[in-house]
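<goal> How does this chain fold?
<sample>
Here is the protein in question

***
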Amino acid sequence: MDTHVRPGAHAGPALEPGRQAAAPPLRIADLGPMLRAALPDWWPVLAGLALLFVPTFISLFSGAWISEEQGHGPIIFGLALWLVYRKWPAVLAVPAHATAGGSRSGWAVLAFGLAAYLLGRSQQILMLEIGSIILVTAAVLLVKQGAAALRVLWFPFFFMLFMVPLPAEFVALVTMPMKMAVSWVTEHLLFAAGYPISRAGVILQIGQYQLLVADACAGLQTLLTLEALGLFYLNLMRHPSAIRNIGLAIFIVPISFSANVIRVIVLTLITYDFGDAAGQGFLHGFAGMVLFVTALLLILAVDSLLQWSLRRRAGAAPPRTREAA
């Protein structure tokens, strides 16, 4: 059946000259065929990146990333890769005119990233070596797909910054006050609960055992890791309320502190009840899992509380009345 538009009838908005109709949104299910179609163009780049960075990842998985201080590194990197995979349909949906020829600034970023990698790898400067991974991959995306594609993937690249280790001097400067605060709160809570505990600086004395609150138990890296996981949660939830997003991001700081206190309390009680060997063995690593599970539950609880507060506030707001003309 033919259709026609009567004279004077509204036929919908006409496209402006030079503009094209928006393409339908791409789905994750369509990503497999798209990746296979793009493989002939991308496999030399992927092979070059693998040849460059595989030695670094071997060193990380056998060294820094198995330590307690940097153990969050593979988690951050894996989540970032998943975010890139999730966002890749949006990268492919960038208009062709925005990606044609890539971005010339990508070559400058690539040169800087390769220089940082060479310096970090040769001088064993872990901050430069890991940071160069972010720079080089961002530069490759700029060269191949342009700045519009990088804007689509800005959060995964920002998220990877949390796996870059900070200078040891800065970490030590910031960590000491945090350890003192965690030790003070742990002492007072356990003393109030009736345990024979005392404190000298960051050393806790409970019964016959002395425990040193280490950097990994109450340090800056733990705070940054939990902040990264909180931002990852916010990115997935996509809350429309700015108050809810900003409030949750701010609350992650006291949540991290509370989780650290709970971890130190758990380790202290394990040592007091089961001995020093138990406190330093498998249960020590288990307490680390308790830390992140506790932090995750607190983040979900605070997010639910913020959501309930906003809904109650919206429900209590009086309806607006329109004034008569």
